[in-house]
Amino acid sequence: MADEVPAGPDKSTLRLALVVGGLVLAVLLGFGLGRLNANGAATGSPSLAAEHTDPPGVAPHNHGSATAADQGAASEPGGLAVSAAGFTLAPLATEFEAGRPGQLRFQVRDAQRRPVTRFAIVHDKPLHLIVVRRDLTGYQHLHPTMAADGTWSVPLTLAQPGLWRAYADFTVVADNGAQTAVTLGTDLVAPGDYQPSPLPGPATSTTVDGFSVGYQGTPQAGATVPLTFRVDGAGGAAPLERYLGAYGHLVALREGDLGYLHVHPETELVDGQIKFWLTTPGPGRYRLYLDFQVNAEVRTAEFTLTVP
User: Fold this and answer.
1) DSSP alpha helix (H) spans, 175-282
2) Which residues in the chain belong to E strands, given as ranges?
3) pLDDT tens across 118-149, in order?
């Protein structure tokens, strides 16, 4: 008689198999979820901050609730690069003989290296050129003229040997009428024995050609604050005249990298004073250059400003 074959496993064996199977399944699921989470962290959806982008050319600014870091994020200076916003400053020559009159010629080129020829009139001019030596002396505010082929030219004398910085401040007009404000910078050189002058100490008043010029205001890193300038002559407040559409023009340059700051004036005098709004991107020393006009003559008052 043949031996009988059991119909199936006994109950204890079945329970053991179920327990072991459950453990194996849990391990496999845990391993798979772990890989999924690891991949998600490395290549999954980016965070909200990473997804948010600003249009090209928009200066750093706060979004929503400002943190301490956000409050210190002011617009960075212009003129630090020869190319920005799709435009390039292309000088035809960069070397000048110190003390001898020369001619600076340059083009503003687009991303296809074509000369740009359409510029908006800002402060009565299509382009403002600022030139200063590396030690922040020798400041000049010039207005080149443009030929039909987009080549700008202006008489220029670099009075002393050294490395100089030229800033082209302009607004390009696109075919569709859109306007892009840009400040580009390039280096110029006057070979010779460079003897840098120390930067004068901070002061809120100075004299120029018999005029006493002073300002009030306390700039703060990362904040926009008002600066008001008063110009006095021998008989009191000087009769300021409009120069390039405004009662005064102010340029601020940062010591070290020579970053160029846009400073916007009020269109009218405020209590007989010229009022500007200055945003300094960080602590350091800045040189202020105030252009003002009296009796059809433009003068420049200079100040050293320390931002803690």
Assistant:
1) none
2) 83-84, 87-91, 102-109, 127-133, 140-142, 145-146, 151-156, 162-173, 179-190, 205-208, 211-216, 224-233, 236-237, 249-254, 260-262, 264-265, 274-279, 284-294, 297-307
3) 999 999 999 999 999 999 999 999 999 999 99
Residue with tokens 């030229």: 166
Which two three-digit tokens encode residue 214? 């002073």
- pLDDT tens digits for 189-241? 999 999 999 999 999 999 999 999 999 999 999 999 999 999 999 989 999 99
Residue 168, classified by CB atoms within 10 Å of its CB into exposed (0-12), middle (13-18) or buried (19+), is: buried
Which range (43-57, 70-84, 265-279, 288-302) has the least confidence?
43-57
- Alpha-carbon distances, residue 216 vs 1, 131, 205, 294 (angstroms): 119, 26, 9, 21
DSSP string, 193-215: ---PPPPPPP-SEEEETTEEEEE
Q: Which two tokens stand for residue 226?
A: 């008002």
| pLDDT, greater one: 27 or 212 | 212
Structure tokens at 58: 């928009």
